[in-house]
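chain below, 288 aa
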Amino acid sequence: MTPVSADTAYVITNKQSNTTITCREKNFVRGMWPVASGPAKQQWLVEGAEDGLYYIRSPLKDQPYINYGPEPGPVVCNSNKCPWRIVRWGDSSFRIFNPQGTLCMELDRGSAADDGKIITAPTSGDDSQLWVFRSIPLFNPTLFPNFTLKNVCTGTVADISYWDEQTIVIANSQYWVPRQAWAVEPVNKALNWYYVYNLSFGTYLSVAVDNPGMDSQLILSAKKQIWEIRPDWSTQESESGQIVSIFYPSSGYLVDLPSKSPHNGERIKLNVDWEMRTDMKWQIGPYK
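prediction:
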């Protein structure tokens, strides 16, 4: 990784394809992310940075940087057959989850001395799956509430926090098994606005639920696209103040949904030309 400007930008070169990407480390929280660098045969070479650490950014769209540790060298890609992810838990500990439903291990982070440690995920059957951990500040839980992420196929529950939007990007990563439907359940009932984020293309939809106190569940599907659910702290209402809508921010297009108060399991059909897919179902709710 070679510095290219005074504002801490770096270039990472793929030695096999001779392609490069530019990183701006200061815009991301370092180190809390799996090494995910695309096709298994493409290994990204990381070179020294000015501050003595080493960073890499996945060539996948909008993925955050990774603190690789004190030694330069090749970064080995994750295996799609065993896609592990890291979930923050409390203010100083982490859990590693396998999205197929296996809790791998829980780490109690009692000391900042472990920052940057590279850990091989146990029981993965692949010693090349390396994870890096770093301590970061805990945000105000009132403004950034915790969420429960539940796999409705296996019943597995994971805990995530919306203190940084990239957390949910990783938690709802494209490495998940397509036919496993995960539900994001907000703990804070006062918040009733959500993003639905397309991981494949970096585009957004927004979903508003007009009655945050009821058990509501929206199911969204997309063909050849991967969608995830995010909260948004702003509010928006239609002219009547009651219609549940899907809003596409980049185009300003607002779509009314068929029900003002969606029921559990109700499927929402979008009346706009978006590709649909039945085996990739994301759900909002029910509220706790």
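Confidence is low (pLDDT under 50) at residues 1-17, 19-288. The CA atoms of residues 219 and 283 lie 5 Å apart.
thats it, cya
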